[in-house]
Amino acid sequence: MDKKSEEFYVRLKEELTNTSDWPTEYLFKFIVPSDIEKIAHVEGAFNNMGAVISNSQSKTGKYTSISISVQMKDPDSVIAKYQELSSVEGIISL
User: Fold this and answer.
1) H or E stretch including 92?
2) Got the DSSP string for 14-79?
3) pTM for the whole structure
4) Residue 88 pLDDT > 90, yes or no?
5) Mind telling me which SUPFAM superfamilies this protein's record contains (predicted)?
């Protein structure tokens, strides 16, 4: 992981720790190219977690936004999910 990414995750953990009581319901938002495999990969990362997943395609159909609401146990588990999905080509985490 590069220094910029590491600093981002340290800052994110600090913000999550200070703004929420854990465990908590967390809303992940991603934008991915509208590719069935990429969408399935993102959604599959939350299988068997009781997640509520919704998605919608952009007007042009090039991108799909994915919202995932799921119970997370602590800031580290949230960060682990973001890191797990960072390997999806073209993903944007919001």
Assistant:
1) strand 92-93
2) HHHHHH-PSSEEEEEEEEEES-HHHHHHHHHTTTTTT-EEEEEE-TTSSEEEEEEEEEESSHHHHH
3) 0.92
4) yes
5) YbeD/HP0495-like (SSF117991)
pLDDT, the chain, mean: 95
Quick: pLDDT tens for 32-68. Answer: 999 999 999 999 999 999 999 999 999 999 999 999 9
Q: Residue 4: its pLDDT value, please?
A: 81
Amino acid at position 43, single letter: E
- What span, in angstroms and rounded, lies between the C-alpha atoms of 48 and 36? 20
> Could you give the CA distance from residue 3 to residue 8 in angstroms, rounded to a whole number?
9
Question: Which CATH number is 3-93's, of 3.30.70.260, 3.90.1150.10, 3.40.47.10, 2.30.29.30?
Answer: 3.30.70.260
Listed by start position, the domains of the chain span 3-93
